[in-house]
């Protein structure tokens, strides 16, 4: 063998070994699950030596991309409808769909003492100009917010004060910049290590809105990707659940 | 032909783009005139400032405007002091944001048109006793008309096509801030592809007609668009 051939052989072997040991998992993650998933993926990669690549966007965008051939192995949706639709369309592997997290809703203001932690009275007093929430047509958190307003019987009182973000991240942005004085956001956005990181808020009781279940699926492309399957198993592990809960999600 | 929601979004978008275009033509004319004639050293810096929206992602412009126009931001403090409240989530807010966003697309063609005016015409008029204002109105403006047309059409089209800025400061309120681009985004995200298809097709037809008009009025400046 010439030197060049030896070099190529060596390079090839190196590449072959590394590809056997570490597989790459491409994961489409609903934007609201960004932070917990980064933590979980880092822990998973460290334990298994795999390489988890995360993309973040809204579930609706990922759904359209996956339907049009996007190269993802795993999809962590913000709802249950999209994973179900993918399974029915034959774009995901059957019997691999499960709820990895359940979201919680909070009525939140960046100002301390603005929202009473024990009651939603602020909605009745009307001492605010704008109430921010995610678009109920697009985001499960937005739908939960509207259900909550209806169940509290205050929807009509606040209807003309509602401003909508395209997703829960934008709904949060409107309140965080003080443009809306109060808003319905995901508990995971304002909770770090089990407590409110800033401002004031009322955690909406679970009986006021339908569960915000977030489902995961293994996509068709990952049929033979053991690392992708391992990642889904890892999402159910105690270690992952602890991370998920520390961000205010339940299970 | 269209659903009520689509019609409302189209009308709102047309209203926004029309108001913005008229205001932009008024604002851009003195800026373009100054840029075309000044020998001031600050010219390059001002040109760069005006052109910034071309290279800045709309999300950056939208984000800064959201913070600046918010109750804690400098613009927000001013508007509140004037008794106008704050601008995000209002139609006026969209108008002001769009003016920032579309400014270079109006200033640049007008500036180019002013720069191309033969200096001798203005000098000749001056020797015949025409005042600066007279020279501007009767010589510079008519000669620069193609630049105004290009600027007007580009400004209108860019405002119609704006998305990132509205998304950041709009709040998606029907008849107030829900413009066509946001409406299309909603449909796609909600998997309502039929509706998205219909409204998108209108936008494609609109873009084609706009560019067609641009090239008809301005056959020698195709490169601009």
UniProtKB/TrEMBL annotation, chain A:
<dbReference type="InterPro" id="IPR044084">
    <property type="entry name" value="AvModA-like_subst-bd"/>
</dbReference>
<dbReference type="Pfam" id="PF13531">
    <property type="entry name" value="SBP_bac_11"/>
</dbReference>
<dbReference type="InterPro" id="IPR005950">
    <property type="entry name" value="ModA"/>
</dbReference>
<dbReference type="InterPro" id="IPR050682">
    <property type="entry name" value="ModA/WtpA"/>
</dbReference>
<feature type="signal peptide">
    <location>
        <begin position="1"/>
        <end position="22"/>
    </location>
</feature>
<keyword id="KW-0732">Signal</keyword>
<protein>
    <submittedName>
        <fullName>Molybdate ABC transporter substrate-binding protein</fullName>
    </submittedName>
</protein>
<comment type="similarity">
    <text>Belongs to the bacterial solute-binding protein ModA family.</text>
</comment>
<keyword id="KW-0479">Metal-binding</keyword>
From TrEMBL, chain B:
<dbReference type="Pfam" id="PF00528">
    <property type="entry name" value="BPD_transp_1"/>
</dbReference>
<keyword id="KW-1133">Transmembrane helix</keyword>
<keyword id="KW-1003">Cell membrane</keyword>
<feature type="transmembrane region" description="Helical">
    <location>
        <begin position="196"/>
        <end position="217"/>
    </location>
</feature>
<feature type="transmembrane region" description="Helical">
    <location>
        <begin position="87"/>
        <end position="107"/>
    </location>
</feature>
<feature type="transmembrane region" description="Helical">
    <location>
        <begin position="136"/>
        <end position="157"/>
    </location>
</feature>
<feature type="transmembrane region" description="Helical">
    <location>
        <begin position="12"/>
        <end position="36"/>
    </location>
</feature>
<comment type="function">
    <text>Part of the binding-protein-dependent transport system for molybdenum; probably responsible for the translocation of the substrate across the membrane.</text>
</comment>
<keyword id="KW-0472">Membrane</keyword>
<feature type="domain" description="ABC transmembrane type-1">
    <location>
        <begin position="10"/>
        <end position="217"/>
    </location>
</feature>
<dbReference type="InterPro" id="IPR035906">
    <property type="entry name" value="MetI-like_sf"/>
</dbReference>
<dbReference type="InterPro" id="IPR000515">
    <property type="entry name" value="MetI-like"/>
</dbReference>
<keyword id="KW-0997">Cell inner membrane</keyword>
<keyword id="KW-0500">Molybdenum</keyword>
<comment type="similarity">
    <text>Belongs to the binding-protein-dependent transport system permease family. CysTW subfamily.</text>
</comment>
<keyword id="KW-0813">Transport</keyword>
<protein>
    <recommendedName>
        <fullName>Molybdenum transport system permease</fullName>
    </recommendedName>
</protein>
<feature type="transmembrane region" description="Helical">
    <location>
        <begin position="48"/>
        <end position="67"/>
    </location>
</feature>
<dbReference type="InterPro" id="IPR011867">
    <property type="entry name" value="ModB_ABC"/>
</dbReference>
<keyword id="KW-0812">Transmembrane</keyword>
